[in-house]
């Protein structure tokens, strides 16, 4: 069970976007073919340290052997720090706000037309599979709309690999190949039309590749893992499949010029929204996931409420289950509260779509 669903693939020519994926790039046309929903612990912990509530979990956990290791929250915090630093550095280097819509200089008219067509197709996919989300994007500036559509489509296609009609035939090797395509895309060598839209997006906004890699890791988890021993394990999964979307999107949505918040705090709160949404999806889809043999609930917390896998598969609503669900809902709401602070810091053209 993922936070996102299907991607449509297109048969078309391939656009190549030159550059390193972090700044300027040129667009060329070549032949080719194609085919076919921020972080509980990270963001909430940051809020807890500011005195906004009870900390959910420590950053460093001790193994039975007495060694300490980084928990999921700390690993993701390092990713967040990198994303925030990347945005800050670009602003210092260019002297231009990353909130600004910047169009590439396309000298070849046919290349520009094909790129426009790629973005239109991404918008069509978004409108078809996520109508409410699509309507929200229409409140953004045109350039931001296009970029968000491109990110959305890549996420859907990635999710489709393990959650679509062909999921039973997907292997770790297939995910490795998909990640190789991602690397090529960020090097300005997209495989198909939809990839080309994202390749163009990452030349115009300070979008880093790491969250995309991490989402592919989330798909890998679904291939090999159907139980989560504790919330730390579940948090990492939620980050990979949904919190990553926040890191991908903030550079496009932009931060309000008048915001006094740090870039990193806003990234933390974007993570909180992704994690909150994923936890909500998990609680909504318990029955559906159980029918597929999956339980996305912390095993230790189930046991604390006197519940087991057998109770989940039986599907009976008991007093124990109600008490457990109230506890899980309370956690998800904490993350939504944390995320709401970040929404207020976004550029005004991006606030309504997020709300």
TrEMBL record:
Gene3D superfamilies: Farnesyl Diphosphate Synthase. It catalyses: 2 (2E,6E,10E)-geranylgeranyl diphosphate = 15-cis-phytoene + 2 diphosphate. GO terms for molecular function: 15-cis-phytoene synthase activity; geranylgeranyl diphosphate synthase activity; squalene synthase [NAD(P)H] activity. One of its GO terms (biological process) is carotenoid biosynthetic process. CDD domains: Trans_IPPS_HH (cd00683). Its EC number is 2.5.1.32. Keywords: Carotenoid biosynthesis, Isoprene biosynthesis, Transferase. Transmembrane segments: none annotated. It is an enzyme of class 2 (transferase). It holds the Pfam family SQS_PSY. It comes from the Eukaryota. GO terms for cellular component: plastid. Belongs to the phytoene/squalene synthase family. This is 15-cis-phytoene synthase. It comes from Ceratodon purpureus. The lineage of its organism: Eukaryota, Viridiplantae, Streptophyta, Embryophyta, Bryophyta.
């Amino acid at each position: 069970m993922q936070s996102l669903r299907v991607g449509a693939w297109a048969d078309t020519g391939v656009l190549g976007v030159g550059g390193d994926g972090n700044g300027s790039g040129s667009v060329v046309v070549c032949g080719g073919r194609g085919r076919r929903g921020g972080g509980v612990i990270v963001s909430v912990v940051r809020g807890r340290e500011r005195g906004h509530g009870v900390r959910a979990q420590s950053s460093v956990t001790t193994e039975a052997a007495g060694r300490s290791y980084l928990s999921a929250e700390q690993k993701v915090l390092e990713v967040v720090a990198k994303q925030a630093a990347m945005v800050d550095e670009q602003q210092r280097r260019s002297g231009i706000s990353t909130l600004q819509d910047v169009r590439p200089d396309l000298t070849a008219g046919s290349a520009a037309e094909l790129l426009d067509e790629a973005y239109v197709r991404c918008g069509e996919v978004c409108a078809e599979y996520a109508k409410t989300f699509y309507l929200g994007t229409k409140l953004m500036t045109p350039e931001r709309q296009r970029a968000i559509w491109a990110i959305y489509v890549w996420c859907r296609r990635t999710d489709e690999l393990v959650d679509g009609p062909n999921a039973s035939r997907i292997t770790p090797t297939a995910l490795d190949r998909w990640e190789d395509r991602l690397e090529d895309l960020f090097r300005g060598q997209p495989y198909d039309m939809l990839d080309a839209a994202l390749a163009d997006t990452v030349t115009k906004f300070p979008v880093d590749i790491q969250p995309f890699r991490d989402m592919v890791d989330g798909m890998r988890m679904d291939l090999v893992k159907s139980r989560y021993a504790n919330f730390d394990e579940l948090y990492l999964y939620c980050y990979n499949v949904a919190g990553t979307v926040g890191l991908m999107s903030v550079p496009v949505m932009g931060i309000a010029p008048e915001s006094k918040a740090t870039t990193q705090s806003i990234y933390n709160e974007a993570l909180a929204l992704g994690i909150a949404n994923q936890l909500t999806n998990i609680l909504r889809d318990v029955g559906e996931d159980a029918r597929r043999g999956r339980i996305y609930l912390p095993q230790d917390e189930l046991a604390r409420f006197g519940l087991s896998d057998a109770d989940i598969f039986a599907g009976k609503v008991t007093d124990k289950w109600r008490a457990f669900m109230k506890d899980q809902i309370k956690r998800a709401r904490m993350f939504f509260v944390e995320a709401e602070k970040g929404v207020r810091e976004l550029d005004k053209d991006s606030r309504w779509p997020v709300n």
